[in-house]
Design a protein that fits this description.
With 69 residues, the protein is an all-alpha fold. It has one domain. It has 2 helices and no strands.
Amino acid sequence: MAQQIDTNKLKQAEASSTLAKNLITQAIEQSAANPALCQEALKQASSEIAQVQTMISQVESALQTQSAE
């Protein structure tokens, strides 16, 4: 049986990683002018990165389960 990848989950991971990248860029741009905004952007980016890691792990686990079958 061919392995199927949950492309929707990977697309969500891609969108979240793009958002994290944009937040990090915002943090860099605001680092001198507005440290509080910089810190908030980094917190949000960290949260997005954690979500990406979870989604990728779920896809990897599904692939490993299919491989074992």
